[in-house]
């Protein structure tokens, strides 16, 4: 395929695997890149910049295709050494970074000096415009349905993507709710140059997580996610479970007075319990509404090939067949 995103990142298909805490390890990133998409290693899952350098080297052993690294700027209990993570990325020869959370403005000079292309993930047109203004090469526009942090505007992709297309000059991918060939065709029709997927890639053979996580996603419907931390303006879409119900009960009791300390047990240190140990009820972990469209656990290559084949069929058979053939 050829879109502004395949050209920008020198990849075969405009399909990106978004950064995912405790999921975006070299194994998944390499599998996605080998299948023609863009795999992304999640920097902060590596506790130190040295460990990130090792993970980048491990990925390079598994693929000769381009891959990227995600740098997430979210409120954490202690500020990670971002400049050192960027140095590890640059020294590791990675030339694509997905930023997310706060604006990457402060780090743009270092990223650009290293010849890195930056795709900033954001949840509103105004943040995407800011990304364009500060020199980001592309945006990943994340709608309200997405797994993880959908922001506070609650605009779904059916509106957000065409608004982004009306406004942005830089290429952008549609993120949130993307699962199959229908999503890809719809995203392209709405003006995007490709798609970014999180939850769908979590339920693949190569995702380096406990099988209970993959089964939980296959078993979930589009009704099974919940929004947490709204009162803290740090909203996150997560899969509902026992830990999340306890958390929501605390949120209801505290109302606008909620402090992060009130829900610390349900949100801190949960990812290793879920992703490594398979205790999917332990607390809050990100998951998109798209879980309702996920019914299997294919290999990454099977998934990507299927998306592209479906998108082709949809375009040339279903859609083309709806128009007057004489045109
Ligand atoms: C388990 C999980 C962990 C995630 N962790 C991160 C993260 O650390 N940083 C980040 O920028 N996005 C993170 N995301 C968001 C994804 O990169 C992506 O933007 C999102 O999943 C897209 O929505 P979808 O799940 O509907 O595909 C995470 C998503 C999931 C499902």
Automatic annotation (TrEMBL):
Pfam families: NMO. Keywords: Flavoprotein, FMN, Monooxygenase, Oxidoreductase. One of its GO terms (molecular function) is nitronate monooxygenase activity. This is Nitronate monooxygenase. It comes from Cupriavidus cauae. InterPro entries: Aldolase_TIM, NMO. Signal peptide: none annotated. It comes from the Bacteria. Transmembrane segments: none annotated. SUPFAM superfamilies: Inosine monophosphate dehydrogenase (IMPDH).
